[in-house]
Design goal:
This protein is an alpha/beta fold. It contains 5 helices and 4 strands, in the order βαβααβαβα. A 4-stranded parallel beta sheet has the order 3-2-1-4, sandwiched between helices. The longest helix is centred in the first third of the chain and has 15 residues.
């Protein structure tokens, strides 16, 4: 079984809840006998609070995230707007997906997952909109 973990609008972190509830959990799932391959896809706003605060530390954190995932491939999808749209309203929801469907569609087509684990309603919307 091929498993994809999809986050949307959230900056991957190598600490705290993201590390324990996302990275560690997915790494454990990917090691199950029934899982033949796994991929971690993260759609991240290019203008985010972490990048603004940490500057080049953002790149170090992404490297650490990849290390924590081990053999799981990490794929980054850029979202071309500020992070404040993550907490969207009915009028701004669609903007968090502007220009990203192409990237996600290509990833799904290449990987062909059996299961897509979505961390948020934005991730679920992105996954379901590909059908």
């Amino acid at each position: 079984m091929k498993v994809m973990y999809l986050t949307w609008g959230e900056t991957p972190r190598d600490i705290g809840v993201f590390r324990t509830q996302v990275l560690t959990m997915f790494r454990e799932i990917s090691e199950e006998e029934t899982v033949s391959s796994a991929v971690f896809v993260s759609a991240v706003p290019l203008i985010n609070s972490f990048l603004k605060r940490e500057k080049l530390g953002f790149l170090k954190t992404i490297r650490n995230v990849k290390l924590l995932l081990g053999n799981i491939k990490f794929i980054f999808i850029p979202i071309i707007l500020p992070q404040n749209y993550v907490h969207s309203t009915d009028k701004t929801f669609k903007f968090l997906h502007f220009g990203t469907k192409f990237f996600l569609k290509k990833i799904v087509k290449n990987f062909e997952p059996d299961v897509v684990h979505c961390r948020s309603y934005h991730a679920a919307y992105a996954a379901v909109s590909l059908k």
